[in-house]
Amino acid sequence: MMDMNKYATHEIADNVFWVGAKDWNRRLFDALIPLPQGTSYNAYLVKGAEKTALIDSVNPGFEKELKARIEQVGSLSDIDYVVMNHAEPDHSTSIPFIMELVPGSVLVTTEKGAKMAELYFDTPRDRIKTVKEGDTLDLGARTLQFIEAPWLHWPETMFTFLPEERVLFSCDFFGAHTAFGIYEDDVEDLSTLAKRYFGEIMMPFKSMGKKGLEKARELDPLLLAPSHGPMYRNPETIFRLYDLWTAGETKEKVIVIYVSMWSATENMVKALSEILLSEGIEVRIYNLANADLGDIAMDLVDSRGIVFGTPTVLGGMHPLAIYAANVFKILRPPTRYAIALSSYGWGGGAIKQLQTTLESTKVEILGAVEINGPAKEDNLSLIRELGAELAGKIKSDS
Questions:
Q1: Distance of alpha carbon 269 from alpha carbon 206, whole angstroms
Q2: Which residues pair with 223 in a beta bridge?
Q3: pTM (whole model) above 0.85
Q4: What is the mean pLDDT of residues 105-127?
Q5: What is the DSSP string of 8-26?
Q6: Which among 17, 38, 99, 307 counts the fewest CB atoms within 10 Å?
Q7: What is the band of 8 on the pLDDT scale with cuts at 50, 70, 90?
Q8: What is d(CA 161, CA 321) in angstroms, rounded to the nearest whole number?
Q9: Contact, 309 vs 369, CB < 8 A?
Q10: How far is it, in rounded angstroms, from Cα 79 to Cα 101?
């Protein structure tokens, strides 16, 4: 028999409960994103005078924990509605589990969400209620209001708002990957974790993020309840950060990402970095052989310039540099200027491949240096000149 008392729930507003799960041990998300502090899958139970709604659910493997937490504050059979703000598996895979246990329950989602529920979970159409912008659901002394938030970060995403308590359930938007804490002041470095999360997940959708932020702010919530990480009792804390990030605000800052096999490329990178530092530019350097992708994504959020360093391997970029360049391409950061540095032994090609990879981005490549063997003084002089030019461009954009 499961010990029900080992699962803690939290009443976050009157008759509104956190019933999610904390994944303390998870260290990778989407086979891509490092999770140094694990993560949480936040689900919420809203009890009205007549109806009860479960908002979002949990990752596969945490279904019994979700069930146990719900039963701490009520009966599972009381659930009338299961609200799916977002169809990604970490929030929705447990929905069929709940709906099978509660045969009378109805899934509430957008039209696009309904199609995904039919596709992924075989949810019968007659058990789905579709909603659109401004629609409401009466729970009896409690009302759920639905706000479309497409591409934050899937096309079917929506927010759910509880106006009586002014709680906004924003799903992935405003989230952070950490299992620590319940509220924002429980986690000392939450702004850093939130910035990592934005860079990893939301940065490619900045324009839609700006619209989502405007909608969230207009609702004037007292409590912001995302689907990952702590809740915000002072939503303006994260709103102010999203003002900067969704606008693509950058600093006098350069991120340097490189890989080097025999130190030649590394020495080129160091020479350029020293010039940038001497010009008062903030520099963040990452060796791709041991760098954390989440840290790189975080620094891309507000870096005005980027330096790529890669040796040539069999006529092209080093595989780690190929990976990093493609990550840069898909994350679409607000970075404006780039410099490419490369060394080779018996044949070049890395610079050409990098330039081709970056063609579809908006970054301006100020210069590229490709050297046969280790850099000589004339090579380093050219690299320093490029560094000074990059520093000038970055300062002129302030």
A1: 30
A2: 167
A3: yes
A4: 97
A5: --EEEETTEEE--EEETT-
A6: 38
A7: confident
A8: 43
A9: no
A10: 10
**Residue 1 binned pLDDT confidence (cut-offs 50, 70, 90):** very low
Question: Is residue 298 a contact partner of residue 327, using CB atoms and an 8 Å limit?
Answer: no
Dihedral angle sign, alpha carbons of residues 385, 386, 387, 393: positive
Mean pLDDT across the stretch 14-24?
97
At 252 the three-state DSSP class reads strand
DSSP 120-187: HH---GGGEEE--TT-EEE-SS-EEEEEE-TTSSSTT-EEEEETTTTEEEEETTT----SS-SBGGG-
CA distance 111 to 95: 17
3-state secondary structure 253-272: EEEEEECCCCCHHHHHHHHH
Q: Which of 113, 138, 140, 142 is closest to 128 using CA atoms?
A: 113
All residues at 6 or more sequence positions from 119 whose CB lies less than 8 Å from its CB, including other chains: none
**Residue 309 pLDDT > 60:** yes
User: In angstroms, rounded to a whole number, what is the distance separating the alpha carbons of residues 318 and 293?
Assistant: 17
349/224 Cα distance (integer angstroms): 49
Return the closest-CA partner of residue 230 out of 190, 273, 258, 267.
190
- Residue 200's pLDDT is 97
Do strands 223-226 and 167-171 pair parallel, antiparallel, or not at all (unpaired)? parallel
313 strand-pairing partners: 316
Contact 145, 61 (CB under 8 A): no
Task: Find, among 115, 152, 144, the residue nearest to 227 by Cα.
Answer: 152
Q: Which residues contact 305 (CB under 8 A, 6 or more apart)?
A: 253, 254, 255, 281, 335, 336, 337, 338, 339, 390, 393, 394
At 377 the pLDDT is 95
Locate 336 and state its tokens.
């404006």
- The answer to whether residue 43 scores a pLDDT higher than 80 is yes
Instruction: Round to whole Å and give the CA distance between 280 and 285.
Output: 15
3-class DSSP state of 318: coil
Percent of the chain predicted with pLDDT > 90: 97
Mean pLDDT of 114-142: 97
